[in-house]
Amino acid sequence: MDLYLLFSYFLTMAKELNEIRIIELFRKHLDSSPHIFMGLKSATGIHEDAGVIRLSDGKLLVVTTDLIGRKTHVPPKMTLFQMGQKAVTVNVSDLAAMGAEPLGLVFSVGFPKDITTKDVEDIAKGMNVAAKQYGTCVFGGDTNQTDDIILAGTAIGITNEEQILLRSGAQEDDIVAVTGWIGGAALGLYCLKKGIELDFHLLQYTLEPKARLKEALILNKLKAVTAAGDITDGLAWEIFKIGEASEKGIIIYEDHLPIQEKVIEIAHAYNLDPLELALYIGEDFELVLTISPDKWELVKKKCAEMNIKITAIGKVISDRKILMEMKSGQIISLRKEGYDQFKTKF
């Protein structure tokens, strides 16, 4: 997720406004300070997943926030333990996209009157398990009464000016690559909402997503990544953001997209387009990266050593268009579309 979700609470209070318009209003009325390295008021900050504070000796404090609500973000069959895990994961994923090492998280949690002791414990245990997986912890927060279970997290990470990953660094001829598999989480979400049985292996992408923190930190040390973002809002939307921030175009290739055959098979069985799932639905907690061509072999070698799946899916181009070459050879324009909490796909 990104800064377009920074003020999610206000979005729920103003349904007549869209996300981009609300961010514009806040950007208009909020001031900045000299110690802010990057934020809403900076040219590149509007494109990024977090705000960044300048510390001493070139170090940067990366701060991101994201919330999930049971009614709006939790699919059927997701347990409260898994909800706690996901609340941590969505925030850590934003740190990963910027190459920042987590220092810790705080949460403001809202609970309805009928919440039980077991419910609270399940959420807390899920948060703790996820935080430990990413080598960090939840160290504080606040609680209030609300009409729904709301978990609003803030993750704090650290990096430096030389290593921070931004969406604005892509260069012409850079290789566009993604980690892991895509499309499986969207398929799982569809099946859960429709009550369709699906292998737990595939449902895990939806119910127990994993932030690609390890992958981001390993690849960042190679000094090969020129731009990065996570694709929780959909691959097409993320590619558009990188293209806009970098003032470049991107072309991807349909036959290079890492969509599992099982996902394609099940999607077709329910009259779903696997490309729509992979490009526009979201929920894949993978990274999309632009990588210097002369570093690609080094990246592939390191990923093979660390058992990290990475796939080259396209390249950066000078023409500021976002395109896809189909298997037929036809070149089409991608839609500037992704996850929008006001426009559910299923």
Structure in a nutshell:
By secondary structure, the protein is of the alpha+beta class. The protein contains twelve helices and 13 strands.
| Relative strand content | 15-25%
- State the end-to-end CA separation: 20 Å
* CATH architecture heading of the largest domain: Alpha-Beta Complex
Q: What form results from the Cα inertia axes?
A: globular
| CATH hierarchy class name of the largest domain | Alpha Beta
CATH homologous superfamily identity of the largest domain:
PurM-like C-terminal domain
Q: How many DSSP-defined strands? A: 13
Give average pLDDT, whole number.
90
Q: How is the biggest beta sheet arranged? A: 7 strands, mixed
Poorly predicted ranges (pLDDT <50, ≥5 residues)? 1-14
Helix percentage range: 25-40%
SSE series = HHEEEHHEHEEEHHHEHEHHEHEEE
The number of distinct structural domains comes to 2
Annotated CATH topology of the largest domain: Phosphoribosyl-aminoimidazole Synthetase, Chain A, domain 2
Rg of Cα set: 19 Å
Q: Give the strand order of the largest sheet, numbering strands 1, 2, ... along the chain.
A: 8-10-7-11-9-12-13
Structural class call reads alpha+beta
Number of helices: 12
